[in-house]
Specification:
Keywords: Membrane, Transmembrane, Transmembrane helix. The protein is mainly α. About 70% of the residues lie in helices and about 0% in strands. The chain is globular and about 50 Å long.
């Protein structure tokens, strides 16, 4: 009797992924959000995005193309790590009861950090402190001064990185917190390949620092941007989400796909106070929340995939955060803030 060839492993994995409830719910919500934007928004979105102009339809199309690109990067990451011994991140979390308690307390702490960041910043007449400095990526017209920028970076690195790490490092090893590599050569290969692909896509599709600054501004602005965003955005996300929460998400759910989705949601919520959001009406509230997820959910998932596949939170820092996008996109903004000539 002739035998039927087994389907390729990749196809089998996709089918298994599509059967998971969390994946189906996420896909349905994503599709519904697209429909809502097209029904609620006018011809143009209400956001001031000089860095990424376009109509509502343009932004919806670009959002979905961008998500397909992220899925492509996830596939590349899985391909690069397919022969590696998969780290058991769930085993790095404590027992189930402790994991549940720590996760709830961490999420409450993160919410408190956002509230205090809002109140503190508004007391000084600044933009509320979220994971992005006002004017990041989209090039909003809002003015940011040097003191605000440095306070934003200092607040975030202390609240989301220094304090959580100081507490959890007393109880858990560097390996349990995804701070060390079990395969340095393999991690380096992932970093180089993903960084090159992401940088090439960014140069092809987005406005970057190159061509906008003088030689002197390059020499000062690029390292200044790197350090500022490393403190204000990169390390806070790394420690709070990818070092501490991701192993606990995996322990609680038992599902890599659900963990990746939760990582994307958490990363998105930490950007709640982005300066471009418009909260002047229920419709604008809804559009702002949707586009927060359109903007950050995919990158948050990608960072989670890099962490889960390598067991090393530093991998996402160098491959998909510290250099691309922030240093490449936001250098002109930082040059303006600090009046670099």
């Amino acid at each position: 009797m002739p035998t039927t060839a087994a389907p390729p492993l990749a196809l089998t994995s996709l089918r298994r992924l599509a059967r998971q409830r969390s994946v189906r719910i996420t896909a349905a919500v994503w599709l519904a959000a697209n429909v809502v934007v097209l029904l609620v928004a006018g011809e143009a979105l209400p956001f001031g995005w000089p860095g990424v102009p376009g109509s509502t339809v343009d932004h919806v199309v670009n959002t979905n193309i961008g998500m397909l690109g992220i899925f492509g990067l996830m596939a590349v990451t899985c391909l690069l790590t397919r022969h590696r011994v998969r780290p058991d991140l769930a085993d790095r979390a404590p027992d189930l009861a402790t994991t549940r308690r720590e996760t709830l307390l961490l999420l409450a702490y993160g919410a408190l950090g956002l509230v205090v960041g809002f109140v503190l910043a508004r007391l000084f007449g600044w933009h509320p402190f979220g994971l992005h400095l006002a004017g990041s990526i989209f090039g909003t017209h809002d003015h940011v001064g040097p003191v605000e920028a440095m306070t934003w970076a200092g607040y975030n690195v202390v609240v989301y990185a220094v304090l959580p790490l100081a507490y959890f490092r007393r109880k858990y090893s560097a390996e349990q917190l995804n701070l060390v590599s079990s395969d340095r050569r393999g991690d380096a290969r992932v970093i180089v390949v993903v960084l090159l692909i992401e940088s090439a896509v960014q140069f092809a599709t987005l406005t970057t620092a190159f061509g906008q600054l003088t030689t002197g501004q390059y020499l000062v602005g690029l390292p200044l941007t790197f350090v500022l965003y490393l403190a204000g955005a990169v390390l806070p996300a790394m420690i709070f989400v990818y070092c501490i929460l991701v192993p606990r998400f995996l322990k609680l759910t038992g599902s890599t796909a659900t963990t990746v989705i939760l990582g994307g949601i958490t990363y998105t919520v930490l950007h709640l106070w982005d300066a471009w959001t418009v909260l002047t009406s229920p419709a604008n509230w809804l559009l702002s929340i949707i586009f927060l997820f359109f903007t950050y959910f995919g990158p948050g998932m990608m960072k989670t995939v890099l962490t889960v596949r390598t067991g090393n939170a530093w991998t996402h820092v160098w491959a998909y955060h510290a250099v691309a996008p922030h240093t490449l996109i936001d250098a002109p903004h930082v040059v303006e803030i600090f009046r670099v000539r």
